[in-house]
TrEMBL record:
Metallo-beta-lactamase domain segment(s): 14-176
Record's protein name: Putative mRNA 3-end processing factor
Gene3D superfamilies attached to this UniProt entry: Ribonuclease Z/Hydroxyacylglutathione hydrolase-like (3.60.15.10)
Source organism (scientific name): Sphingomonas rubra
An MF annotation (GO) of this entry: RNA endonuclease activity
Length: 335
């Protein structure tokens, strides 16, 4: 067997995805591909139009709901399949429902492509599982030391306290339709808020799907067309784009909130006219990223989707070989 020149030389990063040559498959391709391995359902990782898709059953269900029926091959957590010469496994990433790290074993070398991940407990999805490997491909959405996310319960308590202090108003929370909205709802339930929650129509389909997949959200009521006096004193969930449009102005003197890791940046909150910033992210913060790298101890780190330079520098300071990948992605934390 010829000796390979470098770790992971059987993977070929391209702007539109990572090509796994001995499996003849792409990971999270942003263009239609014959064979796609998909980490999770957000639009910068999943899209329609692939000939065949391998993903967790939950991710395939999300892709069906968002892009139409997929020619999908479900792979459960802990299950291993073989594509060409590569053993492929899916391990929880803790990002959103169904999110997975893709574990690739080829000729004695292991590469883990983590997709997006977080280390904090989330009632809507399986928690991140660290996997020892030779090469770890990590995201870097919040890869700057300034990003240290506060306690989740404290942020939810801020939301509940503001609601109770303003019984004649509502708190309208901007949250992405896949993952974040359902997490906020479940976190509210876990903190004892069992009142009905009103939702924007754009959230209905995925909230229904989460329920079908076993995530209990409690009583949700469509907000459109409901009298202002009925919504007063309640939480209203909507996509971020609806926070400042005509839809939100129909609500009873709404207190605008947004759930996002970017709410750590005050200027972003001001730009979006957010009265109650909730620092709640589905991505690892700086400490979680670096702790993960220490725990996994890969021989090499590939960094993508975010503040790549800072994390590469952190690795190099610790004699860990690292490089940035120029993959296409969104700066925002979800879609």
């Amino acid at each position: 067997m010829a000796k390979r020149e470098r770790l992971g030389d059987w993977l070929q990063p391209h702007p539109h995805g990572i090509y796994v040559a001995p499996a003849d498959a792409w990971i999270d391709p942003s263009e239609p591909s014959p064979r796609a391995l998909v980490t999770h359902g957000h639009a910068d990782h999943a899209r329609g139009g692939h000939d065949r898709v391998w993903a967790t059953p939950e991710t395939l269900a999300i892709m069906d709901a968002r892009y139409g029926p997929q020619t999908g091959e479900p792979v459960a957590y802990g299950e291993t399949i073989r594509l060409g010469e590569v053993e492929v496994g899916f391990v929880p990433a803790g990002h959103v429902l169904g999110s997975a790290q893709i574990v690739l074993d080829y000729r004695g070398e292991r590469v883990v492509v983590s997709g997006d991940y977080k280390r904090r407990p989330d009632p809507t999805c399986a928690g991140f599982e660290p996997v020892k490997c030779d090469v770890f491909v990590t995201e870097a959405t919040f890869a700057l030391p300034v990003f240290r996310h506060p306690d989740t319960g404290d942020e939810i308590d801020k939301l509940i306290a503001r609601l109770h202090a303003n019984p004649d108003r509502c708190v309208v929370v901007g949250a992405y339709a896949l993952g974040k909205a359902q997490r906020v709802i479940c976190e509210l339930r876990d903190r004892g808020h069992h009142a009905p929650i009103y939702i924007h129509g754009a959230l209905q389909r995925l909230c229904d799907l989460y329920e079908e997949l076993g995530v209990r959200l409690g009583e949700l009521i469509p907000a459109t067309g409901v009298a202002k006096k009925e919504i007063a004193g309640h939480v209203v969930m909507c996509p971020p784009s609806a926070l400042n449009d005509r839809w939100s102005r129909r609500l009873p003197d709404p207190i605008t909130a947004m759930a996002s890791g970017w709410m750590r940046v005050r200027q972003r909150a001001r730009q979006k006219n957010v009265e109650l910033p909730l620092i709640l992210s589905d991505h690892a913060d700086w400490d979680e990223l670096t702790t993960t790298l220490i725990e996994i101890a890969p021989r090499e780190v590939w960094v993508t989707h975010g503040r790549e330079e800072a994390l590469v520098h952190w690795c190099e300071q610790r004699q860990i070989k690292a490089r940035a990948l120029a993959l296409v992605g969104f700066e925002d934390e979800d879609d």
